[in-house]
Amino acid sequence: MFYVKLATQNIKKNRQAFMPFLLSMTFLGALNTLMLILANDQGLTKMHGAEALQQLFGFGAVVIIIFSVIFSIYTSSILDKQRKKELGLYNILGLGKRELARLTLVEMFFSFLITAVLGILSGIVFSRIAYLCLKKLLAIGTEFKFVIQPQTLFLVLGIIFLLFVFIYLLSLVSILRSDPIKFLQAAKEGEREPKAKWFVALLGFGALGWGYYLALTIESPVSAVIKFFWAVLLVIVGTYFLFTAGSIVILKLLRKNERYYYNNKHFIPLSGMIYRMKQNAVGLASICILSTMVLVTIGTTASLYFGEQDRIEQNFPRDVMITSVAKTDKLKQDAKAYAKKQGMTVTNVQQLKASEGLLFLREGQGQLKPVIRGSFSPNDADRAVNVVLMDLIDFNQVTGSSYRLEKASDILVYNNDKFSGKTLELGGEKLSIVKNLPRADELGNLGNGVTPAYLVVVRDQSVYDALVNKWYTTKDMENYRTPRYYLNFDIKGSTDKAKRLAFVRGLSRALAKDNSGYGIEFKDSYRQSLKIFDGGFFFIGIILGTAFLLATAMIIYYKQVSEGMDDHDRFVILQKVGMDRTEVKRVIHSQIMMVFIFPLAVAIMHVGFAFPLIKKMLILFGLNNWHLYLIVTLIVIAIFTLIYYLVYQLTARVYYRLIER
């Protein structure tokens, strides 16, 4: 009973230390409840095309659990730090380490009860709101229902319990290693001036520069994925080195500038930061990394969501796209007949013949070498291009043009590879470019793939056959030599989404009865699957971004509270020697601004250098509109900066109240 009473009193009296801890743990409980309810939703298994969404929610749940472990360790370490003096006093008054361990166990038990109840209840409420938002984002029907499964709640309860067990074990280790005398004297010990570690600072700048270099020099989306991990790792390492060592080097260089340092606006904040940066650096670096994660996560997922229509139009210029190894006349007749039965009309029909996308590697300026996809190495990703061959008769017929090619070596070329030469060497054959075509819109989605694309128009079918027979000689390469026939058309007659989806599914079944050797894709089916994926991805981005944002705010708050407690006596002395309240506020404002503008500025710099890398990676998802990504990123930065400023204002007030006489 003694421990219960003492534990409840400690929690009440130390609200300033316990409240942020309990709020953060409650939020983690709510977040896990939300993600696990969504990940275990049985309605997702009944939804057409929701497999990717289910995997996304499962991935999000795992990320949230990992984030919960990391963030709970951080918040508990801050709580332990703030209570060292109190526990040291208890130890001096007669409570041994065993008794302190029991007291901490009771405190953790009460904290667990509060967190579990409030976390799960608030998580259920947020889940209900999330279901409504998801239905709006995904445009789905009644199969996606809000159902609370008892096993999910027990799983959340188990996660919260394990988190508190882990936190208690860390606290127990701290208590067993503690020295009560040192705890009581820790606040009175002066902070030694940190040394300027030039070598570590240079390593930090070097790692940061290397990471930026990778981000700026990556050429293809495939290599962007391969090198993304290394770029991120280098930037994280560089950021921590920059804050821990580089910041001290910069501050000491500022101190050497007498005009800047011996100024009443800069003297106190700068001198204090030099002594305190040793313990501030890790927290500031964490704020910077988390801020970068918020900006990148929400910026990319929002761009994919709002760029959905662009991606649909790029990949599906027409409603139905059929690829066949034989002529498509019968497929066209069957499609028109089925559409007539269903009260629909086939319009804007396009038939063309061309090769499939042939993989080539750049050997030099205007030199392309054919390669078999099975022997393609990821190391060659930056050199890969996609080549489509077409004869002039088919090209003129489809585009309505009247180009002429006199020689067998004459070609027309369209490319999105920024190549504008007069000669193109394909697999050792030097071909003369009669004209560089400005666009190829009539030919569907050419050029919207992951790799740069070339459309090469040759004089006639005999030139076409001679080229592919030279490049692909063995029997197993016959597939590369065979041309493809394409049938693309629109369907008119209804704008209702459900009716159009039912029609295209019925059309697929009807064509399959009397035809073979073809593949068929529908814009409406693609739109539905894209809507589900992008909406779910955007939702995950919002959840993770909110989690990272909360972590950023909590680190800032903890830092301000810790700084305020440590700076209290220093500012009391300054006020006693004549500094008035206005000057104290000005010094506080200057110190906080110097500390917290730095992480935000570096985070925005990280996002700026990561822009080319992320732009390339978004191409893998079909988003080529980098202007949209730029606009969305700028909006996200503006909103985040506003929130960051509000957090700064609130925490500055807490800091001022702590140091005020």
UniProtKB/TrEMBL annotation:
It is found in: Cell membrane. InterPro entries: ABC-4_Integral_Memb_Prot, ABC3_permease_C, ABC_permease_BceB-typ. The chain crosses the membrane at residues 21-39, 59-79, 100-131, 151-176, 196-216, 228-251, 281-306, 537-558, 592-614, 626-647. It is a multi-pass membrane protein. This is ABC transporter permease. Residues 59-180 form the ABC3 transporter permease C-terminal domain. It comes from Ligilactobacillus faecis. It comes from the Bacteria. Keywords: Cell membrane, Membrane, Transmembrane, Transmembrane helix, Transport. Belongs to the ABC-4 integral membrane protein family.
